[in-house]
Amino acid sequence: MSEYFIYFNQQWVGEHSEEWFGTRGPLAKAVVDEMKAAGVYVFAGGLEEDPEDAFCADATSGTLTFRDGPYVRTPQFVGGFTVIDVSDEQAARFWAGKVAEACGWPQEVRRFKAWSRRDAR
User: Which Gene3D superfamilies match (predicted)?
Assistant: First the structure.
């Protein structure tokens, strides 16, 4: 089994009405429920939309420091993500497609490196 990271940048969402967004929640929840039933679900969730609500932990200077805001200010930032544990890339494509259809915006998919896998602990 391999873990995949399915995510979107907030800027990919586009402009939509509140009514439109209201129709997406139940669709996304149904996909998560389907993932759980299939035994591939690890985690899914949206992130706070304002990157200014983020904070950073930085130890690159040799001293751990924390500061408010994103580490790097950029016009694109992760809006939400899903982690799945599936048998192969074809299965990851299947679930990423379901997430993209439910949300209504593109999703990028990346496989976790082997050393980061949960069962490697």
Answer: Dimeric alpha+beta barrel
